[in-house]
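Researcher: Before we compare anything, I want clean individual predictions. No alignment, no superposition, just each chain on its own. First chain goes here; please echo the sequence and then give the structure tokens.
Model: Echoing the first chain and its structure:
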Amino acid sequence: MKLKDLLYKTQILDIIGTTDQEIKAISFDSRKVEQGHVFVAISGFAVDGHEYIDQAINKGAEVVVCSTLPENRKDHITYIKVKDTSIALGAMAANFYDNPTEKLKLVGVTGTNGKTTTATLLYELSEKLGYPAALISTINIKIHKEEIPSTHTTPDIIEINSILAQAVEEGIEYAFMEVSSHGIHQNRIAGLKFAGAGFTNITHDHLDYHETFKNYIAAKKAFFDNLSKDAFALTNIDDKNGWVMLQNTHAKKYSYALKTSADFKGKVIENQFHGMLLQFNDKEFWTTLVGTFNASNLLLVYGIANLLGWNEEEILTSLSELKNVEGRFETFTSPQGIITIVDYAHTPDALENVISTIQNIRTRNEKLYVLAGCGGDRDKNKRPEMAHVVTSQADQAILTSDNPRTEDPNEILKDMEAGVQPQHYKKYLKIADRKEAIKTAFKLAEKGDIILIAGKGHETYQEIHGVKYPFDDMQIAIETAKTLNK
């Protein structure tokens, strides 16, 4: 592609050099630059790409896009000064891949909890209804039935456009994407045209990055602020910040709720460990998904599907056939008759929702064991809150490690213990080794008891001192139960 075509829709402040050359690829990582690449210098959270301009040129970059022109410029290099390089990168990535989001309907889902579940269920529903779809989530990336390997948990804007371009090439009409607050704030969705957006909820999380809850809300809201008038915005008005998301959006505004009147109104009629009977807009159906939080996620899926113009009867029939997303309230009953639940809940609110779901279903003749930890190198403010939720609501709590990363697991547990109130001191254990903690829960539990293993869900590793070791909560729980049954 010619450089002048690649720069379409970028806010150019200055050009030094020619824009007539052919461009082979775009890169914002100087280590990946090759001959004929454009290097975009991004001022990131930890690193400023402007410091690596010379390195990129030495590796073959012929064009540099920057927000500050370097003092020592090379004669044979074209320099493009723009207002914001991260926004420019989004426009350039879209142009390079021939603007795939103008050729399919991309729906983004944002919120603290439920993003992955909702995006994945939308993809599954679309496929069931006979509409081949693409999925971009933190668990996996799919184009129709094909799983696409990703080098990062969340793909960058170049990778997103590449995936969506491949989807367009295969004739796919719909794509569903998990949209994080980090991605919004860092302009990692810049240049994408969304046909619609859904909001799940917002609670205490990621304050290590956003610093204040107000900033966190503003990041989520920015996603809706930038929607076009042709798009739709669907928000959860059971959440007190639900209406905030719609305040300045140009998109068509819609609401959904379980607790109040809304465009898409839901109700939980029955809630059991093997499923729920739900009523959406006065129509009943059964789902194998469990918990009020899943009822809310399904209601968002139902609303988005309706706004995409799909047949309502077919939507409800297919919703009843959808299965749990991996690592989200996954259950099994051990040979000893112990009900075990593995869930990704890693925020105070998500943990409270999962425990509340269990409390609403259980008989109270059994004990509830809850095992939870907090990640290292992440928001420390939520650690005491997590411990408070677990110790105040479980019959027996076990505080343990999650992904300690570079922190000492015992120091993380000390931070958590600060949230334990004196009346709950006798009903919690502290076991840093997560595998040992799972074993302990099974040794203590008896037939009919419930064990909730929270925090890691679908993850198949545990990160300790920067090294990822194989670790799957569900697999370890199943193996432990089998061993104790011998």
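Researcher: Okay. Second chain, same rules.
Model: Second chain and its structure:
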Amino acid sequence: MPAKAKVLILGSISSALAERSRSLNFEHVSSVEMIRQEISRRTPAGQAAERALEKGLPIPDQVIFGVMRRWFWARKPDAGFVLTDFPATLLQAKVFDEWFESRGMSLSACAVGDAADSVVVDHYRTQGYDVFVADQLLAV
């Protein structure tokens, strides 16, 4: 798979698989890690995420969208990546699809990691993607 491939892994992957993606010269991007960084830097997004987590609530979509939007629009359209942990919901998948469409981009591959939402997996299948198991996709 070329290093400029855009790979979406629905759910999470093991640290060993994340290391494998980096060894293949892919930028590994995790929304969970990006939110953790926001929390540690005490940014407004990080503080909002931390408040939600302290209350046992999910992190609000607007916080996740803000963090992921900054990453997505700051990158070069032809740069490859392996994205995990986002999109995690059908709403997030539809918004992410709109971002891709607005830049004339498409995914190279879609795979299922751990704890993927079956509704999101089904969404990408109906979009015409063959959805692989993440271990198989990165085991080249």
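Researcher: What stands out in the second chain?
Model: The mean pLDDT is 88. Additionally, The radius of gyration is 15 Å.
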